[in-house]
Design brief:
heterodimer; A: mainly alpha; Histone, subunit A; two-stranded antiparallel sheet; B: alpha/beta; eleven-stranded mixed beta sheet; 16 helices
Chain lengths: 102, 473
């Protein structure tokens, strides 16, 4: 498996990750990522036929609870929400204000 | 009492016997921090006012004749990715330089209820990404035993603070070895709990299928005390378990210990591990053997793939978890001007994140991208299953596994920063326990005890027994 990363894929990845890399950063990243991906090739020699992927760190199963209001929690969460909104740089009627989208 | 002699237990005895008050000790510690921390830079911020209030409350409770709990008044240092309400939580990143936490993490709430005192927040690799604390945006922490050497990472500040007696104990977080390896480099004790044993609510997430909060302490007994206090189910962390730990954690039955079989995985004593470290660990084995504990050589055949597996899964989760940092919600970055929202994200994230964080976000974005997902991420998840199965198989024959913690001794600053892969390799002996979700105890002179799920008691009891015999011998 050849190192499947080049300048173009790197540029595209940076865009997806909302990162703007300088030329120096791009060159360094490309060099490092190529080397790291090359190292990962060792995984291809492992026989994983029929092996189930391990998705998380736990074997706990999802459980569902009734959709009811816990008043104590609600009071706490209203308090927390208020403090989180206070920490926003700019607010308007309790909402976070950001620059225009388009 | 001299600060160098303070453990959680001795602090407690001192309070009970009225040798000192909590406030006196906290004041003495801050004086010592002011003098000594210039040399090692283990703390990023201190909150004296809050700590004095907590200490006074502990002293008042004692004066009123209320029972003194094991953590009443105990001064702790907390890694800067764990939230304490109204204190900074920067995760050692420029991205959160101006952020103040709005609530207590569950571990903090629990410790607060026990009457513990929080001295301040400790330095770390940015967002817990690194093995030397050199990735902090706010300067290096130095190894208290030799300032030319790194303290390890990512919880380097928490380990250095305990080793330099600038706190009685501390909390760190461990995603791939981040409390065990710095504890090893600084010659203190650390416990990475079973995945799900401790709530992560209020921990700034790095890789959610791997992260656990754990104690860094001066001895094994203290690690058990602190772990007991922070463990337990929390409905605010969906991965936290209902398992309840009893007094078994610190109640040692020597006869039971002597019936245990400890496995020595040959892959962990490989030529890649420093010879002096292997020699020290083999001496530990010999000492334990002479006490009647049996050893057995075992094999964990997929160990050699653990680094590749880890460095695919962890960055994938990092790229998702760090998407929330836009430079708006938690705190704004200074001096960033943008023409629209997309431009603001781009500028904030490029300015706010350091080099290693960017590298891992890029790597994670790559392994999750369509076309490469199966070859990297899906493959790594299957290899993760095989690594876990290796342990399941081994634990049919042995109760506990003993290995070295780190393949190298503490290294010099800048020695590994040029080549990220060489830095990643320092995690080779610690990541398997995270991938398999197992508890692991790291302690001097450089060994690690890995236990079965929810069996912290086994590793703590063996560790305590070893420490006791060493100290009395």
């Amino acid at each position: 498996m050849a190192a499947p990363i080049n300048k173009n894929t790197l540029k595209q990845l940076a865009e997806l990750a909302r990162l703007k890399l300088t030329t120096k950063e791009s060159d360094e990243q490309l060099k490092d990522l190529k080397k790291i991906l090359k190292y990962f090739e060792e995984l291809q020699e492992v026989d994983t036929e029929g092996v189930e992927p391990m998705n998380g760190g736990t074997l706990l199963k999802n459980i569902f609870r009734d959709d009811s209001i816990n008043l104590e929690q609600k009071a706490q969460s209203v308090d927390d929400t208020g403090r989180i909104i206070e920490s926003f740089p700019e607010t308007d009627k309790g909402c976070l204000k950001v620059p225009k989208i388009l | 009492m001299h600060l160098h002699d303070l453990t959680i237990k001795k602090f407690n005895q001192g309070l009970v016997n009225k040798e000192f008050t909590a406030l006196e000790m906290v004041q003495q510690l801050y004086k010592f921090i002011e003098k000594e921390d210039k040399k090692i830079n283990s703390y990023l911020s201190l909150d004296k006012e809050a700590a004095y209030l907590q200490a006074e409350a502990a002293d008042l409770a004692i004066a009123k004749g209320k029972g003194v709990g094991p953590l009443t008044g105990v001064p702790l240092a907390i890694k800067d990715n764990i939230l304490i309400a109204d204190q900074p939580a920067t995760a050692a990143s420029k991205m959160l330089e101006n952020y103040t936490a709005t609530y207590d993490a569950t571990v903090i709430r629990k410790l607060r209820n026990e009457g513990a005192v929080f001295l301040g927040k400790t330095n770390m690799d940015e967002f817990a990404m690194g093995s030397s604390t050199e990735n902090s945006a706010f300067g290096n922490t130095k190894n208290p035993h030799d300032p030319k050497l790194v303290p390890g990472g990512s919880s380097g500040g928490s380990a250095a603070a305990v080793a330099a007696h600038l706190a009685v104990a501390s909390l760190g977080s461990d995603t791939g070895g981040s409390i065990r390896q710095p504890a090893d480099f600084c010659q203190v004790v650390a416990l990475k709990p079973t995945y799900g044993a401790v709530s992560r609510y209020g921990l700034i997430a790095m890789a959610s299928s791997l992260d656990q909060i754990g104690p860094i302490t001066k001895n094994v007994e203290d690690a058990a005390t602190l772990f007991q206090a922070i463990s337990g189910h929390d409905e605010k962390d969906a991965t936290s378990s209902e398992v309840i730990y009893g007094d078994e954690l610190s109640n040692h039955k020597i006869e039971k210990l002597k019936k245990m079989v400890i496995g020595l995985p040959k892959e962990y004593f490989d030529k890649g591990v420093d010879k002096e470290i292997i020699k020290k660990v083999k001496k530990v084995v010999k000492d334990l053997e002479s006490l009647g504990i049996k050893f057995k050589e075992i094999s964990l055949p997929h160990t050699k793939y653990a680094i590749s597996c880890y460095y695919i899964i962890m960055p994938a989760e990092v790229s998702a978890n760090l998407a929330r940092f836009d430079g708006i919600r938690y705190s704004p970055l200074e001096g960033v001007k943008a023409k629209n929202l997309a431009d603001l994200y781009l500028k904030n994230r490029s300015k706010g994140f350091g080099k290693e964080v960017k590298r891992r976000i890029m790597l994670g974005t790559f392994v999750l991208s369509s076309g490469y997902y199966d070859a990297y991420y899906a493959k790594a998840q299957k290899v993760r299953s095989l690594i876990k199965q290796d342990f399941d198989q081994a634990f049919k024959d042995v109760d506990v596994i003993l290995t070295p913690v780190s393949p190298t001794k503490p290294f010099k600053f800048k020695e590994k920063t040029k080549d990220p892969l060489s830095m990643y390799m320092t995690d080779v002996l610690t990541v398997p326990a995270n991938l398999a979700g197992l508890p692991a105890l790291s302690m001097p002179p450089g060994f690690q005890l890995i236990g079965q799920h929810w069996r912290e008691a086994d590793i703590l009891n063996i560790g305590h027994y070893y420490e006791h015999v060493q100290n009395s011998g």
